[in-house]
Design brief:
about 5% helix; 36 strands; globular; 5-stranded mixed β-sheet; 31-stranded mixed β-sheet; mainly beta; Maltoporin, Chain A
């Protein structure tokens, strides 16, 4: 016990040293002062976010960007890890793929300014670690969608609102970050805005570098429990990222409002990976070395026009064009146990994703009603070109080359009805139609689907500081892009190496969702405590199925609609200043999500949970503004519970242990125009432990694997200057 405690304390020493230095520096800077006020922008931003949440009829959480930035994170993914209900799969510390309510990433919808954003992932996901926190004004977490929103997002929707609120202020942020196994990284970010009664503009941009080291070990055992081999893997990723987000708005004397927004995200990623294999006796069993270079450029242009047609009628129009270009080059060298070269492999992949969106809506105000009706048109074009070579011989993949074109037409109507001062109702109906055309070399296919997505949201203001919300909405999850292509990838045709085929006739999953929540608002916009119950009944589940074809006697793997599933749970949250408890200067944020689900496995007939869904998510955060200083100390802890996957189709069972993180930060207001932020992230060095069991066809144990993934802490410093 003593040695374990010493290890924990030793791991915290660098973080505690950072905090001690920050305390000393802040005390020196504050000598002779007795000021406790927070920056006006920070307080106002939090109040606006809470007020927006309070006035919404649909269940929505709003978090101000300044609130997230206090923790010192460079990327949005790292900042969201601390928020209630947020979960990221993959290796610990790699916070890129959002999994709301613990579901796989394709169940979470991510929007930027309310619109879809192209991404290179096949599951329509957006990688949040590539979005710098400095460009975010606020985030909105929509538990249940309204009719004017895209109906995707069975697990929920994250809407990222970029900075547009122009103020007569200039800001420069300089940052540096490093860690035990990380090089020194740096960042420079700026924003410059002006506004008057007629127009406003904001120019924001920056450059940052990030590093992500990872270490992984694997031990393999045979059915008798004896060690049969092991592996050790080390990987290091280095990102070089640039962004630019100009905004311009102009209002005419007649009330017309024009807006223009540009978005540029440019990322270059270098990855080095080394894997060392060992036999049971510890001798070498081979080595592998990989190098990868990935370049990604995301460019977007959005135009908006709000035109009043009368005192009670307004026409809104929007047009957006977004373009993504990804290129990847990868080289891999494999060596045998005796050190001789076994394989020399290379892979080149290019993806291009372009999306056009145009829409219009009419808003009509009539006494206690606000009517909204509109349409959205969408055109998405996607191309993929992937080429592999092994020992000088081309190794084409059946799905390595494809072209997709998706056309969308969405119609919606919605009414926001103030029945009384205490009762608010928001019924809506949305109709979505999508037509997809896909092509592999020599093969073509097309498909279409249409569905209605009704929604009904109700808010009852029980008392001055109490609100009850209930929602019913229908949502959809569209198939992966590469599942819809007509590809045929011939393998050996055995159970362990089945042939792979696409499924252009794959239907989207559809879900009826139910939410019931109660919220209590504390003091004068000091915080909120809430409880939300939810359920999702999902039809036409899409899952990968391995089956035996009676015609040729070979096994095939294909994504199919396999049946139904359901998801349910409870979400508790608390965010409050604790002055009302006699603890001035102390603020608490806490949340707990209990998650459960049920799917009937098609192969085994056994009921199981959705894959990789933890049983719970928990987080606690504390901030303390030291009286008579401008110093704020804070820390957060968050944990994702363990889970077990039992996939009968693959004759495998996987169990993953709980993963938890601990972070600390210090903010020092050195001057009205100067802020110092220091952060120590992941000081507990989160680890992910996984056990995998494989079975023979008769159900007997075949093998057992134990995988462990390790992460590294990160220490950062940011200096913000305003003038």
């Amino acid at each position: 016990m003593a040695s374990r405690l010493a290890g924990v304390v030793g791991g915290w020493c660098p973080a505690l040293s950072v905090l001690a230095l920050a305390l000393l520096g802040a005390r020196l800077a504050q000598a002779g002062e007795a000021v406790t006020a927070l920056p006006t922008m920070q307080v106002e931003g939090e109040r606006i976010a809470l007020q927006e949440r309070r006035q919404s009829v649909a269940p929505k959480l709003v978090i101000d960007g300044e609130d997230l930035r206090r923790s010192g994170n460079g990327s949005l993914g790292d900042a969201l890890r601390r928020v209630s209900g947020m979960y990221f799969g993959g290796a610990p510390g790699e916070n890129k793929d959002l999994r709301l309510r613990g579901l796989d990433k394709e169940y979470s919808q991510v929007l930027i300014d309310g619109r879809r954003m192209p991404d290179s992932g096949e599951k329509r996901e957006v990688q949040l670690d590539q979005i710098p926190m400095a460009m975010v004004d606020r985030i909105e977490i929509l538990r249940s969608p309204t009719a004017q929103m895209d109906a995707q997002g069975i697990g929920g929707t994250l809407n990222i609102v970029l900075k547009k609120r122009s103020v007569e202020q200039r800001k420069l942020i300089l940052g540096a970050a490093s860690g035990d196994q990380r090089p020194m990284d740096g960042s420079v970010q700026f924003s410059w805005g002006e506004a008057d009664l007629q127009q406003q503009w904001l120019l924001a941009g920056g450059r940052q570098t990030r590093s992500l080291p990872k270490r992984k070990t694997k031990q393999s055992f045979n059915a008798a429990g004896l060690l049969s081999g092991s592996e050790e893997e080390r990987e290091h990723k280095r990102f070089f990222e640039n962004y630019l987000t100009p905004h311009w708005g102009w209002q005419s004397a007649g009330g017309d409002l024009l807006s223009l927004d540009l978005l540029l995200l440019d990322s270059e990623m270098h990855r080095d990976k080394a894997k060392y294999k060992y036999k049971a006796d510890g001798s070498s069993n081979g080595e592998e070395f990989e190098k990868e270079l990935m370049n990604s450029r995301n460019l977007g242009l959005s135009l908006g026009w709000e035109r009043p047609l009368s005192e009670a009628l307004q026409l809104d129009s929007h047009l957006s064009v977004r373009d993504l270009d990804d290129s990847k080059q990868k080289a891999k060298q494999s060596y045998k146990a005796n050190g001789s070269l076994d394989k020399l492999e290379s892979e080149d992949e290019d993806k291009r994703d372009r999306e056009y969106q145009f829409g219009q809506s009419l808003t009509y105000w009539q006494q206690d009603h606000e009517w909204l009706a509109g349409y959205d048109l969408g055109l998405k074009k996607r191309e993929r070109d992937k080429f592999k070579v092994s020992n000088g011989v081309p190794k084409p993949e059946a799905n390595g080359q494809y072209k997709l074109q998706e056309k969308r037409l969405d119609l919606y109507v919605m009414d926001s009805w103030r029945i009384t001062d205490s009762h608010h109702l928001q019924p809506g109906l949305r109709w979505e139609h999508a037509r997809l055309e896909s092509a592999n070399p020599g093969l073509k296919a097309s498909s279409s689907d249409a569905h209605f997505a009704p929604s009904l949201h109700y808010r009852w203001d029980l008392a001055t500081d109490w609100a009850l919300r209930s929602s019913v909405a229908r949502t959809v999850r569209r198939p992966k892009f590469d599942d819809l292509t007509p590809m045929v990838d011939s393998k050996s045709g055995t159970l362990t190496d089945p042939n792979k085929i696409g499924n252009p006739d794959l239907l989207p999953e559809e879900s009826w969702g139910y939410d019931l929540g109660i919220e209590h608002y504390l003091g004068q916009s000091q915080g909120v405590v809430g409880l939300n119950l939810f359920r999702r009944d999902i039809q036409q589940l899409m899952e990968e199925v391995t089956y035996l074809d009676d015609n040729d006697g070979e096994y095939y793997k294909q994504t199919r609609n396999t049946g139904d599933g359901k998801l349910w749970g409870a979400e508790f949250e608390l965010s409050s200043e604790l002055g009302w408890l006699g603890l001035p200067g102390l603020k608490a944020n806490a949340g707990y999500s209990w998650l459960d689900s049920e799917v009937r496995d098609q192969a085994s007939g056994v009921k199981r949970r959705f894959k990789q869904q933890p049983g719970y998510l928990a987080n606690v955060g504390l901030e303390y503004r030291i009286p008579a200083t401008r110093l704020t100390l804070g820390g957060s802890w968050n944990k994702a519970g363990d889970f077990a996957d039992e996939i009968g189709n693959n004759n495998e069972r996987t169990r993953v242990a709980a993963v938890q993180y601990l972070d600390l930060f210090v903010n020092a207001e050195l001057h009205d125009s100067l802020t110092l932020r220091l952060a120590a992230e992941n000081i507990g060095q989160a680890r992910k432990d996984q056990e995998k069991l494989s079975f023979n066809g008769d159900g007997s144990l075949k093998s057992r694997e134990i995988n462990r993934e390790y992460s590294e802490p990160l220490y950062s410093l940011n200096l913000e200057v305003r003038w």
